[in-house]
DNA sequence: GCGTCGAAATTGATATACTAGTATGACAAA
DNA sequence: TTTGTCATACTAGTATATCAATTTCGACGC
């Protein structure tokens, strides 16, 4: 992998995890020194991050970690629902036994991580579940698209307090989706997915009070 | 606008219009000389094009105009249908009189361009129509997303022979969508849009015969 | 308090050079 | 003839130094 790609990944992860706070300045020169490389790969990484909406570049002025665009979050949720409705409906139509087995394996790992309260591993399996449904539907590119769209939602969610028992709730919702797919019940698969995605919308107003300068 | 952005736009247009043929090599050095700039802005433009899937960069080897990924086109159509179903349904719910007027204005211009057989202006208004629906629905970002997804579809369509009377057909389909939105008839608005988008799928097998080396 | 000027800072772009993979073709060996 | 190896040329990736263009911001004078 190239140096630029590595820097992109590191900055990407740091911004998503809020390790780099929204609004924080990012200077090419400083980053280049920190990473021990020249400005060139740093620039490439920042340009890609700007396209993803994770940093904002103001020419001849400065580069900053983007503030979370609260106004765009409802639209992002709508887009995600639209796309994942498509994948789950198709998956419910075409899923084979081995596909269900894959989903079961993911849910099982999720349960294990939930019982150990390992949020990071749990989150990874959550993503794997949705990605698997996209793959089962035969539309793997849709998950790629969803990932880019859900970026800002995830950042906002990181700011919400962890709700006790939420991992268990998510696992139950996943199980409901899995059951509907296994039963080839398109309608209830769709409904279960909509319930699941509807529950993930962060409480915008509360966030704004606690972290006023994190949002645009 | 920056030099890099200008170069990006020029290359983007040239690739979409097939002026730059799929598979054609693009050398940073050569492009830099042609545009009369240094390698840096050319690189930035190529990197953005690579993210959009319009060029393929093979490190330490070469950069090429991407071949059209025929296998990805069905998925792109599914994604577009999914997203535009969402916008048209919402638009049918919330459209005001002035919104309908905007659609009418676009359709009127389209009719004019069709009667003069000006394909390029007609195409621009076609895009404006879908963009307007996205805006009316309150989800302008969805059109941005659709634009990126439909890139490869558009390239493939450029290779198909112009069908006589297609402009008239498209205008009729747009009118049907407009009427359903004006009537706040969500169901038939959706159906009209699906008919419209279903008619745009290029004939993949025929293309492959005529331009075998344009596809991946 | 307000407007203006100018220095400092930052990204944008250039030029050059070097590194490290990759493709190519010639050539030798089987 | 086929196969494997090697030398070569070529390309993108990175480094470095420098200048340009623009914005930011504080000092200064009014």
Automatic annotation (TrEMBL), chains A, B:
It comes from the Bacteria. GO terms for molecular function: DNA binding; DNA-binding transcription factor activity. Keywords: DNA-binding, Plasmid, Transcription, Transcription regulation. PROSITE patterns: HTH_GNTR. Residues 1-68 form the HTH gntR-type domain. PANTHER family: GNTR FAMILY REGULATORY PROTEIN, TRANSCRIPTIONAL REGULATOR, GNTR FAMILY. This is HTH-type transcriptional regulator in unstable DNA locus.
């Amino acid at each position: 992998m190239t140096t630029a790609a590595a820097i992109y990944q590191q900055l990407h992860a740091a911004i998503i995890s809020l390790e780099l706070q929204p609004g924080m300045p990012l200077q090419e020169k400083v980053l280049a020194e920190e990473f021990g490389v020249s400005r060139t790969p740093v620039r490439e990484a920042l340009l890609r991050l700007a396209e993803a909406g994770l940093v904002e570049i103001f020419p001849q002025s400065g580069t900053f970690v983007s503030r979370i665009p609260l106004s765009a979050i409802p639209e992002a949720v709508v887009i995600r629902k639209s796309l994942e409705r498509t994948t789950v409906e198709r998956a419910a139509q075409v899923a084979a036994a081995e596909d269900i087995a894959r989903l079961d394996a993911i849910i099982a790992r999720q349960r294990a991580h939930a019982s150990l309260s390992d949020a990071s591993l749990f989150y990874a399996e959550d993503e794997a579940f949705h990605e698997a449904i996209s793959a089962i539907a035969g539309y793997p590119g849709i998950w790629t698209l969803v990932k880019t769209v859900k970026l800002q939602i995830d950042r906002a969610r990181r700011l919400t307090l962890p709700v006790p028992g939420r991992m268990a709730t998510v696992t139950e919702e996943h199980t409901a989706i899995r059951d509907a797919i296994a039963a080839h019940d398109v309608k209830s698969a769709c409904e279960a997915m909509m319930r699941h995605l509807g529950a993930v919308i962060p409480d915008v107003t509360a966030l704004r009070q606690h972290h006023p300068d994190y949002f645009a």
